[in-house]
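Schema walkthrough. Field components (list of strings):
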Amino acid sequence: MADPMKIRAQMKGDTAEVRVLMSHAMETGQRKDNAGATVPAHFIQSITVDVGGKRVIQGQTGTAVSRNPVFGFKVKGAKAGDKVVINWVDNKGDKRTDETTIAA
Amino acid sequence: MKQRLSTLLVAAAMSAAFAVHAQQPVKKPVPPPAKAAASAKQGGITAEFEKFREVLEEDNPAELFEARGEDIWKHKKGPDGASMAQCDLGLGAGVVKGAYVQMPRWFADVGQVMDAERRVVHCMVKYLGYKEEDIRKQPFSNVNKTPDHVSVITYVAGQSRNLKIAAPQKHPKEKETYEIGKEIFAYRAGPYDFSCATCHGEDGKRIRTQDLPNLRKPDQAIRAYQGWPGYRMTGGFMLTQQWRMNDCFRQQRFPEPGYLSDSITALLAYMTATANGQVYKGPGIKR
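Field assembly_structure (string):
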């Protein structure tokens, strides 16, 4: 089971600023280990973000994204107290869902 | 080796970027006197880099390692049911808040002055059943693995965020360790006849675009203390203050000290006590 994400969500005027830190190895499949064997690709393949029960982001990511990535975005029309649910699924089928509420 | 090479490449790419940047006209209404111009330009580059670092610090993946370390500290049990709640970091059993900035200190139970990292490893061996020889096999993180004790150290350091550094200098052994550190700091040796003081003993020294702090002064010693443990973006892992100190030995072409060596504790005692009174900002981020 993957480590939890760190999510921060705060209102700035009428938009919510959301930032999420994900713990993931994000192996590109290009790297070789000390023994010279290729480290198999292992990366987050899809991300979804729901704010207040409404899907606001449905995204696909690949190997160009860094290890332990940070994503930040702004959501218009959200309000303090709305629930933010973020989910990712990687290419090995491992997944993780975390949530938080938007702070005022 | 590969890792080091890629680090070098990144460093080269970055200095190239800085060089391009340096050619841009400097936004200065009044041209400074000729002598100050060079250092002003230098300061500008450093300021740019600091800005870059500040942006990154808002979302520092070091937090992920803090969380992992917290989990180990709070929930992991040793073979006989012991936990880190019994670990005394100098402020009482299980007290983590503010402990990091108050080490190295004298620990009567072991009759030794220990720095934070040493004490954490000591506790993990004593209470959680980690084997010291296993920890010594891979004391520092690499691209494949950030060891558990590094996460725990990151957690402990995070619990001293925004607190003043107050390394104690009361016990005679604490004073002695400080003096030994001061001695090692100035000790010239090795094929280059280097000492720590060669680079860190005067104001205004630098390596390429990197300004070097004069570690004999409190307001500059903090700059070497700050940002460790640090999340290294190249590779994505945590590195500790001990790693940094070992790397300084390597850069001087000294033999590298063994993990948790007395000499490193002494140097940390000297540096930390010199930085006493300055505010520690918590785990940092490194390129």
